[in-house]
Amino acid sequence: MSSIHGKHGPLIGALDQGTSSSRFLVFAATNGELLTYHQIEVPRQCPKEGWVEQDPLLLLNSTLTCVDKTVENMKKLGFTPSDIKAIGITNQRETIIAWDKYSGQPLYNAIVWLDTRTAKEVDDISSKSNLKVIADRVRYLCGLPISTYFSALKIKWLLNNVPAVKTAVEEDRCLVGTVDSWLIWNLTGGKSGGLHMTDVTNASRMMLMNIDTLKWDPYLCNYFKIPMNLLPEIRSSSEIYGYLTRTVLQGVAISGCLGDQQAALVGQMCFRPGQAKCTYGTGCFLLFNTGQQIVHSQHGLLTTVAYKLGPKRPVVYALEGSVGVAGSAIRWLRDNLGIASSYEELDQLSSKVTDSGGVYFVPAFSGLFAPYWRPDARGILCGLTEYSHRGHIVRASYEAVSFQVKDVLEAMNQEGGFPLSSLQVDGGMTNNDALMQIQADILGIKTIRPSMSETTALGAAMAAGCAEGIDVWDIFSEDSATITNDVFTPKISQNERDERYWRWKEAVKRSCGWELHPEQKKIADKRYWLDRSIPLSVYFIGTFAMIVLSAHFAANAKK
């Protein structure tokens, strides 16, 4: 590898494929400075209630375009593209894609992590006491509760319901993986020898990997009826996997891969046990580093792999609290309700009010994730009066994000044994100063935002740059004290904080139990018809009684 570089030294690229957008960013390995990037928003499809899908080819093509456009930006800014020594990949986790390894074509749309089409199976398992032992064993092996959120049930649904997938499996043409696997396979040759692989962080979200051995678990794969030969090879988060065969960066190494939330943990340099970060994006995710110790949660949190930065380096674990709906609630206000035409306009509406006017919004579009794990919950607005207007609803939506983070932090404090005194944050939503102040007020602790909020992409770049054979980024020698931060300090009283949180918890109670299990629906229908029949029955009985009494009184009168 040439040691001659431009004025910024060796550069590392980061391909960030998220739920809402695809991006390619370029960082200087010497100081982590973001030099340039290109971003493309990607749409989601909801063909049925609870179903969330994306076009796999659109995800791929948007990333290819982002790489080429970013390189164009580099040339315009006077940077040398040949200084890019490697790229790292970070991605939306749990989202599943099945494709034909001979044609390279997807066999179905990507089923997004938010999708709840497998809710009935989850309900069946959770409602049968004899299956609780199995559910507990699954959680012990993989660290995850049986939920629509994770990949295993999505894969099972594809195998059982999509004829093209069934046929491809029978003919040994089918490959299955998360978004990172789909991208790496295509970027390293596709049908002409592409690598079918994933890293330990993404594998730990599929509900199929043994959290201890870091291998696909025979019991889990057998329980979910998923053939192991469909699944990608599990690798570390930092090593040279292969080389790009597409885009203008052909020949550049791919040497880093992390799920988006784990990438943010690395980007925030949370390398010591007890350090935590919270990322605000489509959803909201708080990760707490537990070191090399596997901690099985007793308070609704997930046990997951934080990172493994090289084949010979130790695996590090984390506890995670996952919030399904954060930024997507704000997008819903814009796109579905049409409350405003842009995020900027929504911010303006929120800034015109000092509080939510007593309005509370629980955005449980796909149920509630940590720490509740209530797939039967649905979105609800509480406290509306004639006084309420658009600004209050927008403000309540921002507060909902912050309250959900508090729910997770409360569980994490119980789990860790000591409360966090501050919270490190990152992600697109953290650019909103008002939201960060709301978060500090609701948590009652300092909220610390790094001056460079792109820590998810930064983490992927760091993993790629420190890989053996690349060796341009010494991440463990970074002095985090040199990073400039914005600090938001609580401004409301403890009494106000407690009052508002109590009301939030009441709103959460009201959101639960809305989406009924099919058997519950049958019972509810019977009760409905019984209730409807009672007034009519009372009418006939009352009428008959009046006739009898009238006849009795008439007979007595004649006497």
Structure notes:
This protein is 38% helix and 20% strand. The termini are far apart. The strands form six sheets. Strands 15-16-14-13-19-20-21 form a seven-stranded mixed β-sheet. The protein has a six-stranded mixed β-sheet with strand order 3-2-1-5-12-11, sandwiched between helices. A two-stranded antiparallel ribbon has the order 4-7. The chain is globular and about 110 Å long. It has helices spanning 56-77, 119-127, 132-142, 151-161, 163-170, 179-187, 200-203, 218-223, 260-267, 327-335, 343-351, 390-416, 433-443, 455-465, 494-511, 518-558; strands at 11-17, 21-28, 34-41, 53-54, 84-91, 96-100, 110-111, 174-178, 197-199, 233-235, 238-243, 253-259, 276-280, 284-291, 302-307, 316-323, 360-362, 380-382, 422-426, 446-450, 485-488. By secondary structure, the chain is an alpha/beta fold. The chain is built from 16 helices and 21 strands. The longest helix has 41 residues, at 518-558. Helix 10 packs antiparallel against helix 12.
